[in-house]
From TrEMBL:
<dbReference type="InterPro" id="IPR008948">
    <property type="entry name" value="L-Aspartase-like"/>
</dbReference>
<dbReference type="InterPro" id="IPR022761">
    <property type="entry name" value="Fumarate_lyase_N"/>
</dbReference>
<dbReference type="GO" id="GO:0004018">
    <property type="term" value="F:N6-(1,2-dicarboxyethyl)AMP AMP-lyase (fumarate-forming) activity"/>
</dbReference>
<keyword id="KW-0456">Lyase</keyword>
<dbReference type="GO" id="GO:0070626">
    <property type="term" value="F:(S)-2-(5-amino-1-(5-phospho-D-ribosyl)imidazole-4-carboxamido) succinate lyase (fumarate-forming) activity"/>
</dbReference>
<feature type="domain" description="Adenylosuccinate lyase C-terminal">
    <location>
        <begin position="167"/>
        <end position="246"/>
    </location>
</feature>
<dbReference type="InterPro" id="IPR020557">
    <property type="entry name" value="Fumarate_lyase_CS"/>
</dbReference>
<dbReference type="GO" id="GO:0005829">
    <property type="term" value="C:cytosol"/>
</dbReference>
<dbReference type="InterPro" id="IPR019468">
    <property type="entry name" value="AdenyloSucc_lyase_C"/>
</dbReference>
<dbReference type="Pfam" id="PF00206">
    <property type="entry name" value="Lyase_1"/>
</dbReference>
<protein>
    <submittedName>
        <fullName>Adenylosuccinate lyase</fullName>
        <ecNumber>4.3.2.2</ecNumber>
    </submittedName>
</protein>
<dbReference type="GO" id="GO:0044208">
    <property type="term" value="P:'de novo' AMP biosynthetic process"/>
</dbReference>
<dbReference type="Pfam" id="PF10397">
    <property type="entry name" value="ADSL_C"/>
</dbReference>
Length: 255
């Protein structure tokens, strides 16, 4: 928190106010150091990047080409003047725009922070305005992010459809990793590469190419090939990690 004029009585007042606000008492008057303001705005930027990343993912995967998620739709809402069936990612776009605006606020602070003299009012004009603007931006971001994550619509069927578009080619690495134990890394990589290229250029389903390859047939049964190409077997601990994180966050909020 900003410091009072130094002196024993002033120091005690400063310490007492800081304690009541749950803050620390500054050893150096805030007029002498602008780093704390920059640190605050920088922390807001770091928080914004998390929500920004979520918004970018929603923005991209809600497009008709993907169709994996969408923002909640309220009956009677017109999505577009030319395409009324659309559900535009308005919340995501608001997060993206405000996050980009917030990042620019920090940049101007970096330029003004080295200004000489503690009473240089030109620095305070910028810092005062930037702190207010940064708080307004992060408030808009957080409010939109809360609604977006709470009301997001997930299209599981479309996700499954999209992950199967390559007919198993997306799981080529898993095939190679299991083949390494039998052939060695270089040989396994070369074999899988040749099979993947054949599937791609000849338009043959990857599973079929694998089943007709003598080396693959020698090392894997049909059921093992199907299991290796199943996207559900290639997500590791993602679901468990997501659930554990959600539980931990919810526990902290209610603790």
């Amino acid at each position: 928190m900003p410091s009072t004029p130094r002196g024993k009585p002033a120091g005690r007042v400063q310490d007492s106010v800081a304690q009541q606000l749950g803050m620390h008492s500054m050893a150096i008057p805030s007029r002498n150091s602008r780093v704390y303001r920059m640190e605050y705005i920088n922390n807001l930027c770091l928080l914004a990047t998390t929500f920004h990343k979520i918004a970018e993912e929603v923005y991209q995967t809600s497009g008709e080409e993907f169709g994996e998620v969408s923002e909640a739709f309220t009956k009677g809402t017109v999505g577009s003047s030319t395409m009324p069936q659309k559900v535009n990612p308005k919340l995501a776009k608001g997060i993206i725009a405000n996050a980009q605006k917030l990042y620019s606020v920090l940049t101007s602070c970096l330029y003004v922070s080295p200004r000489p003299f503690e009473a240089d009012s030109s620095a305070y004009f910028i810092f005062d305005a930037n702190i207010q603007e940064s708080m307004e931006c992060i408030a808009e971001i957080v409010m939109r992010a809360e609604e977006l994550t709470r009301t997001l619509v997930i299209n599981r069927e479309r996700m499954l459809h999209n992950v199967q578009l390559t007919h198993g080619l997306i799981n080529s690495e898993k095939i190679m990793m299991h083949l390494v134990a039998k052939l060695g890394k270089d040989a396994a990589h070369e074999r899988v590469y040749q099979l993947a290229m054949r599937s791609t250029h000849e338009g043959i389903p990857y599973a079929e190419v694998l089943r007709h390859d003598p080396v693959i047939r020698q090392n894997f049964s049909d059921s093992e090939i199907d299991a290796l190409l199943d996207p559900a077997h290639y997500i590791g601990l993602c679901a468990e990690m997501a659930q554990e994180t959600a539980n931990r966050v919810m526990g902290n909020n209610h603790g």
